[in-house]
Amino acid sequence: MQAVHPQTTRASDEKTSDIDVPAGYQPRDGDVEGHKVGHLVTRDHINDGYDPAFLKKTMRRIDFRLVPILAALYAVSLIDRTNISLARAAGMGASLGLNRPGSQEYSYAVLAFFPTYIVFELPSNIGMRKFGAPIWLGGATFLWGIVMTMMGLSRNADHLIAMRAILGIFEAALFPGAVYLLSSWYLRHEVQKRVSIFYSFSVFASGLSAIIAYGLAQIKMYPVERRLVGTRGYLGEGWRSIFFLEGIATVILGVVGFFTLVSFPEQAKFLTPEQKAMVAARIDMDRADATPDKLTLKKTGKYAMDPVLASFAVQFFSATLGSYSLSYFLPQILAGMGFSGALSQILVFPPYAFALPIIIACGYFSDRTRTRTPFIAFAFLLLIIGTVLYTYVRSVGARYFGVMLAVAGCNTAVPLVAGFSQISIRKASKRSFTSALVVAAGGLGGIASGLAFTQKQAPHYSTGVHLTLAMASISIAITLIQTLYFRFQNRKADRGELVIEDHADFRRQL
What we know:
This protein is mostly helical. Helices cover 70% and strands 3% of the residues. The protein has one domain: Growth Hormone, Chain: A, CATH 1.20.1250.
């Protein structure tokens, strides 16, 4: 077999549009009908014909330019949307009247983020295709950083709620856009570990933010005019520093993102023409959608009726119900175990650190074994076990260990489901729609967490706990159904009785 350094020629097939493919490509026996443009090639042979050193260098360059900046942006995104719980523990609740008996203003502030977040997700993916990731994602980060600083000027609960709603508009761009962007660069068996690494960085930062927020809350800002912040007339309240300083950091990172983010493969200026051609050819051999297609209203209606996408949406709802609940209410849950306010903030970090290697390991082995549903089921099982422990066991140590398992479970499920939803389909338009749909379902999980975990039931939150357990159990059942259904589809496709995702060679990964 000749190792070919990819110099490109133009090839075409009547099934697909023209793409650049490597000159001298010579498939081995076992490829699907040999490689033609529009035909898929098995994973074991998809890199045949490429110089391994050239391939490795190209993929490292893509990884370096794509994953770290997306991880950093999503880290501040997750911190900025969830730091309201830490600000509340640092005194915001008392300052803005959120802790009054029977008050639901805090739950309303939590909820206000999600309606706008859900509504703007699909338009955001369309906008990113039109304007490119640097402008769209970098600009969105810059703008929500400004909103974050404005939250530090909140005079009352109404102002806080309004700022949270605006925050949702700009943050809607990032997560679905990042997952869609990652899936556009890599093969199906390369996506999951990158999504898990990308997400795990944000989980670690989210846990660390509790310690950072505790430190920021000790910083006293300068006095200002009385009318600026209401009756206290003083910006020396520590919780305001959390919003101010984290907001400023977000603005700076948005500027960095504008200059460092990369868009889609066909727009990549940091790759040589040969490298761009190789990326496009590999993607086309993997799923035949290197050339993007436009998302139309007709396609949107068709995709919305796909039960496979609905199954991913339910799973993602279940995962984010758990993750948002713990993000917004974990300090109160820990306080209910008897820990002081300051200690409950600090003890938020270890569960997220515990989750980190589990998230990365599941993503890595999911790609390595090309299996998805067993890892997703395992993640939801961890969530169930952990939730039962921290709710029903008396020992404080066992309850805290339950928190660690629950945090690991839901935060492992989030990237697994997000990645699985992207590798189970083809066509750029459908992946764009799917990322928006799935993350919108995650927004509904955030709304459900705010409604189910109410101040009246603190610190035990019985309604929220029962809903978490029910949805995690349903999601495990869905993974079993997916496994059986996808295997059934693959067997029918092997017999020539079914075409999956409009392509005769496409097969589901289980």
